[in-house]
Structure formats: structure tokens, C-alpha cells
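Long-time lurker, finally posting.

We've been working with N5-carboxyaminoimidazole ribonucleotide synthase (Enterovibrio norvegicus) and I want a structural starting point before designing mutants. I don't trust myself to interpret raw outputs, so I'm hoping someone here can both generate the C-alpha cells and explain anything notable. Sequence follows.
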Amino acid sequence: MNVLVLGAGQLARMMALAGAPLNLTISAYDVRSGNVVHPVTLEVLGRGLEHGIANADVITAEFEHIAPDVLRLCQDSGKFYPGEEAILTGGDRRKEKALLDKAGVNNARYQVIENRADFDNAIARIGLPMILKSALDGYDGKGQWRLKSADQADDVWQDIEAFLTASHQADRQCVIAEEFVRFDREVSLIGARGQDGNLAIYPLTENIHTDGILSVSVSANENAALQAQAESMFDAVASALDYIGVLAIEFFDVNGTLMVNEIAPRVHNSGHWTQQGADVCQFENHLRAVCGLPLGSAKRVRPTAMVNIIGEVTVPTSIMPLAHVHWYDKAPRPGRKIGHINVCASSQSELGEHLKALSTHLSVDEFPALLEAAEKLNQEA
Ligand code: AMP
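Top reply, 14 upvotes:
Generated this for you. Predicted structure of N5-carboxyaminoimidazole ribonucleotide synthase:
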């Protein structure tokens, strides 16, 4: 079977690696160059989306910021999963919030802001502190403003107004104001929904961010009540979208009650631990779902942590006895994800020990959340 992935980054690459044993041939559409490329070697296989669509049995996506005309062409082919509506929803916070409300899942109070009157209204209704996020093109904490006190309102509004005016999608761009949630921690749930409606849902994973970018994700022991809460919200959101494929949901954990922060209609960075820690990894389960194959088990087989390699960083080979290293073959740039490291163990406390041992080989500045994750695991064990 031939699968075309919209996007030619590391997620398409890892899909290709996971799909090979199933005889699934993956190609990737690079939205910037307009070429269809091999997702691992990036060799150009052909030019143009039409060519890619014609050669594909199935089309999917590895990111959500895709031009509407590209999505439309794929949708019209009848081969696209999870489909246009799911990708548009993941890429537009306004649509995402409406979906969360429709699915009846707990999420932060919000207001759509298009002008100063909406902004003032939001301050009065939601209260301060407040967080403001661009509806389109927001990721890894980009396109966000924090309004802590009323005396900052004019300055923050000036920034937002300039941003809206400069937006190349001015007709569709707006800002969502959200209540500031005082969460204890951030967790996410990754799951697949098959064409038969069956679900394969992984255990929750805890995420530690640095400067808005995921640093470390730990899948160890989570309590059953929290998992049940997350799964019921997953079911509601996936059903509301009639979703097919892997869907990721990021939550705030507020004293044992989960609140959805955002969804991603694709395989997700906080699911990379499944490559070594789960029976069948997220990449394979995504392919199984979109290709109409039965889903595989999402059981965690051992506590596992994922550590992102970000920026202009080198990693010594001395970590290899402790780690599974996944490089993306990308040129290092500040803030860019260029690889990740999966660390496994037979128990939660051993995972903490392994992360601590890993940290002795790596720079604290480059891997700032590693020790924090190790200490948390040891405290909880
Ligand atoms: P996002 O791009 O929506 O995932 O936001 C990036 C990060 O900002 C999140 O991982 C949170 O740490 C923080 N954040 C986002 N929304 C809120 C909120 N409503 N209240 C508090 N912190 C938030």
C-alpha cells in the first residue's frame, strides 16, 4: 500500500520506518518545495501534489498548519485520513475550542478576540491573569501573550493589534483569550481510532516543557482514575470528529481533574516513548488506522521516558548503553528538534536512576528538564 504524508519532517520519517515491516511504502509531500520526497532520504520522487495524490492509496498528515487548498484537494480524493475537518480543527484554536465545547469536555474558559472591544470584554469576563493565543500558526508556545495585570493591557493590546495587522492570513487570523490555569502538571494522552471505530489508547504520559517546548515526557505509573478521565474525553473528542488515525490530547492536571489544553490530529512528540515502551508504537498504529488495518496493542511494556534533543547539541556515544537514540537527520538550529532519546527501565525508580545516569553524560543547559524528571520519578516511586 502507498501512503502519502503531508509534511516531510521527522514524523513522516518515523512513520516510514514503522511502516516498512508492514510493506507500507511511505512518501512525503514537502509543502514548502511542492515536491514528493522519500521521507528518510529526502530524495525527490516527483513533483506536485496531484502526482502524489494519484500514486497514493491513502493520504495522511504529520502537521496541521497546511494550506486550505492542499487539504481540499486531498479531501476530494476520498483517500484522506483523519481528513480535512480534523486537520483544520487542530490548526485553528477557534475551531478547536468549539469542538471541545461540542464534545462536552472540560477546557479553560475563553473568548474569541477580533478587536479592542472583545479584548476589554475578555478581561472583564475571564479575569486576570489571562493568556492570549493566536488562533492560527501557534505551536510550541509561539504566538502567545500573557496579561498579568490591568496596567499592561494597553501594551499587550498594541502587540496583538500589530500581530493581527501583519498576519499573512489576516482574513482568518484572530486571538483566543483563555483563563490562566494554575495546573499541577501537564499530561497527554495518545490514542488511535480505527476505521471500524475501535480504539487503542496508550497510558498517560507526563510532559515537562522548557520555554514552551517539550523537553522530557515520562510514561510511568499513572493512576487508573486519571487514565479513565482522559480516555472518556478522548472518546468524546474522537467521536465528535469521526476521527480515524492517531489523535493526541494535551491536558492540564489540576489537583486530579483534567482540563484539555489542546489537541493534535496526528502522531505527537509526547508519544515517541511508545517506540520502545509500548507493544505497538504510535507510528505503526497511526498507519494501521489510516490503512484500514486492525489496530495493535497500546499496552505499556515498561516504564519509558523520552528526552528531546533540541538545538545545536551533540550527544556523546557513551549514552548508548542507557538509551535508544533517534536522530532526525536535520541540520541543528537553535530551538529545533533534531532527535530524541528513549530511556527504558523495569520499574519507576529504576527509570529515575537511568535518567540520573544519563544526565551525567549531558549538559544541564542543553537538557534542562532531565534531572527534574529523574527527581520526580524517585519521589513518586
Ligand atoms: P500551548 O501552545 O497552548 O500548548 O501552550 C504552551 C504552554 O503554555 C503550555 O504547555 C502551558 O505550559 C502554557 N499554557 C497554555 N495555556 C495555558 C493556560 N490557559 N493557563 C496556563 N498556562 C497555559
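Before you design anything, note these points.
The longest helix spans residues 224-241.
The chain has a mean pLDDT of 96.
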